[in-house]
Specification:
Blueprint: H1 5-14, H2 19-81
């Protein structure tokens, strides 16, 4: 069922099936391919989620670092201005 389109056609032509069996086979193949597609889509979504989560953690850490640096520079500026 998961074979290439050409393999599927060859196999379907080689086997003697009634029209109702051919219709059922086609329906089953569509469902199987749909499941394969959905599985691949889930895997892609999971990879993108992990990448986004990783990037978010990096940016959060960078933001914290910059906030600390900003606070330090504001404190030094205040000391220089005599506040």
């Amino acid at each position: 069922m998961r074979g290439t389109r050409q393999e599927y056609r060859q196999h379907k032509a080689a086997v003697k099936l009634t029209p109702s069996q051919k219709a059922l086979l086609s329906k089953m193949r569509r469902r199987e391919l749909s499941c394969v597609y959905a599985g691949n889509a889930r895997k892609e979504r999971d990879v993108k989620f992990k990448q986004t989560s990783s990037r978010l953690a990096e940016l959060s850490q960078r933001n914290t670092s910059l906030e600390q640096e900003n606070a330090l520079l504001r404190q030094q500026l205040a000391q220089l201005l005599g506040r």
